[in-house]
Design brief:
Layout: H1 2-7, H2 10-31, H3 37-43, H4 45-50, H5 71-76, H6 78-81, H7 85-107, H8 114-134, H9 139-154, H10 158-169, H11 188-204, H12 212-228, H13 237-245, H14 251-266, H15 278-294, H16 304-316, H17 323-337, H18 346-353, H19 360-376
Helix pairs in contact: 2-7, 2-8, 7-8, 7-9, 8-16, 9-10, 10-11, 15-16, 15-19, 16-17, 16-19, 17-19
């Protein structure tokens, strides 16, 4: 195992990402329409924008399923509409891969040994990122964009940071929540202004194709879908509470669990004296990536690239991991990232892992560990690094 780790240098790990993620894109295309429908749902709504028709509702001539994303995302995906499907599928996975790699690369740029830290983080993330790529989902792009936003925010480039956060908002709402970390950094008024400007610009971008009345109607429908969206597989605290303890599936119960999770996440912000502490900031960001999934009633397997990215960011903060920390990382790799794969018998996955939401358990344990470390942390403020040129 040690030889394999040494063999996987950073350039080889990056090459592995490109190879595997292109490979699964080709595999999905060759397996047929049902395996690349997610891509069609991203690329083909642009057709309806061109015709000034609603992008929402069923459009079986274009794709199967309801489009649940913003009009802006449909507009941004315009170039993919014109590509051959086989090429578009590959390019879509490549785009997600590039943004994810860029996010990890830039976010870890000021570590003591950035090359090694990048390699470790990417190796921790790779299996979950591959699951997302196999499903042709946008989660790798979202995670990368959030990390790029946090990197620029840290370096006081508020306009670049705001762009990435707002971009996330128009794809998946929860991505914009990372913008809340502006509280840790200077230029707060400028950042708020940048967020408003980018929101307006991207929101109005589809006006290049459809009239204002149609755009307003599309946003109204999008907001309605977001509010009324059906629950996902609940691979989260909610799913565990139901499967293990018999909690009833009610909105009231979900709100209680969400409120508990949000309270536990927000309480460490009361440690105002640590806001400028670099270690505290990094731990809170790792904690945030975990929280967004383990307390998400819509969480499903392809979304776990965000939670496992949180695990990777937490691991990087550990100068000397304890035996407990090492055990938790092993549990994440085995029971979160490998549990959906064929290394486990089908019966184990079907009758144990899936119904009992085992995939979520290691990430919840890491979430608890990070919270403990945040509360136990003393003020270790280091001289603030100058913004990168």
């Amino acid at each position: 195992m040690q030889r394999v780790f040494h063999f996987l240098t950073l350039p080889r790990v990056i090459g592995l990402y490109f190879f595997l993620f292109c490979l699964v894109a080709v595999q999905n295309y060759l397996l047929g329409y049902g395996n690349y429908n997610n891509y069609l749902m991203f690329a083909k709504p642009f057709h309806n924008l061109l015709l000034n028709k609603s992008i929402y509702g069923l459009h079986p001539e274009l794709y199967n399923d309801n489009y649940k994303y913003s009009p802006t995302f449909a507009w941004l995906m315009g170039p993919f509409y014109y590509l051959p499907v086989w090429f578009g599928v590959i390019l879509w996975n490549l785009l997600n891969t590039v943004v994810l790699l860029a996010g990890v690369w830039m976010y870890l740029s000021d570590e003591k040994d950035p090359a090694n830290q990048r390699r470790i983080a990417l190796l921790i993330i790779i299996l979950e990122a591959l699951i997302t790529a196999q499903n042709l989902q946008s989660n790798n792009l979202i995670v990368g964009a959030m990390l790029l936003g946090l990197y620029h925010l840290r370096n006081e480039r508020v306009w670049q940071a705001a762009f990435f956060f707002v971009l996330c908002a128009f794809i998946k709402f929860y991505g914009v929540a990372a913008a809340g970390f502006f509280l840790f950094y200077p230029k707060k008024p400028q950042f708020i202004l940048a967020m408003l400007v980018w929101t307006v610009l991207l929101a109005l971008a589809p006006l290049t194709l459809i009239p204002p009345a149609s755009l307003i109607a599309e946003y109204e429908e999008w907001f309605r879908l977001v509010v009324e969206v059906k629950l996902g597989l609940q691979v989260s605290v909610m799913g565990i509470a139901e499967a293990w303890f018999g909690m009833a599936k009610t909105d009231a119960n979900y709100r209680i669990v969400e409120a508990v999770g949000a309270t536990l996440f927000l309480l460490p912000f009361l440690r105002f004296g640590l806001w400028q502490d670099r270690l505290f900031q990094r731990r809170m960001i790792a904690y945030f990536f975990l929280f967004m999934i383990v307390f998400n009633k819509m969480a499903e397997s392809p979304t776990y690239v965000m939670a496992v990215t949180g695990v990777a960011l937490w691991w990087i903060t550990l100068d000397t991991p304890s035996e407990l920390d090492k055990l938790l990382l092993i549990l994440v790799i085995v029971f979160t990232s490998l549990s959906p794969t064929d290394i486990f018998p089908h019966a184990v996955k079907k009758y144990f892992f899936q119904p009992y939401n085992i995939k979520a358990v290691p990430c919840i344990l890491v979430w608890a560990r990070v919270q403990y470390q945040i509360w136990m942390q003393q003020n270790t403020t280091r001289p603030r690094l100058q913004p990168a040129s």
